């Protein structure tokens, strides 16, 4: 964890994250968000690399996450309830609408192309088969990845406002199978990251 300031804002950044596919359980995956809550963090910005299933998407697009579908086999709130939130938390506005609107304004001002969509969280570590891409898209998802959802659920349970962006690093469109490698995903993410950083930095400055 890295602590510092961005302008006059105190910030904490994570240098990487714990993935469920690496063998960590959900308590371990989401432990950083518990620490954030104890340290008084009020807003969480999350990002990820994901496969796009929306035919309007292009590789390198930024997708602002409007909502998610939790397709992990283990729920991060399973077990004894932490007193940071209710046993059955409401999930109608998991991603803060005011932050989403702010990001849209900033992107428009700076001429940065942003898309919107639903993120599907799955366990990995394999990339999706063509049939899985098709299924996830028909279930209502625009992008799929192997992170983010557990962390966001726990942050939301703690009352932390959340904003998320997916970088579309590969495409799994129906009837258009595309082979993908980890190296290609990293390359696409590295190209789009400066634009995502520009939006988030300005959001932090204005919020």
The percentage helix is 25-40%
CATH-defined architecture: 3-Layer(aba) Sandwich
By CATH, the superfamily comes out as Nucleoside phosphorylase domain
CATH class: Alpha Beta
Total number of helical segments? 6
Tell me the distance between the termini. 22 Å
Order of helices and strands: EEHHEEHEHEHEH
Tell me how many strands there are: 7
CATH fold-level label: Rossmann fold
Structural class: alpha/beta
Main-sheet strand order equals 3-6-5-4-7
| Largest sheet features | 5 strands, mixed, barrel
Q: Can you tag this structure with a few keywords?
A:
207 residues; 5-stranded mixed barrel; two-stranded antiparallel sheet; 25% strand; Nucleoside_phosphorylase_sf; purine-nucleoside phosphorylase; Nucleoside_phosphorylase_d; EC 2.4.2.1; purine-nucleoside phosphorylase activity
Write the layout of secondary structure elements.
Blueprint: E1 2-6, E2 9-13, H1 26-29, H2 31-38, E3 43-52, E4 62-70, H3 97-110, E5 114-121, H4 130-138, E6 143-145, H5 149-157, E7 161-171, H6 182-206
Helix pairs in contact: 2-5, 3-6
Brief characterization of the structure:
By secondary structure, the chain is an alpha/beta fold. It has six helices and seven strands. The protein has one domain (2-206): Nucleoside phosphorylase domain (Rossmann fold, 3-Layer(aba) Sandwich).
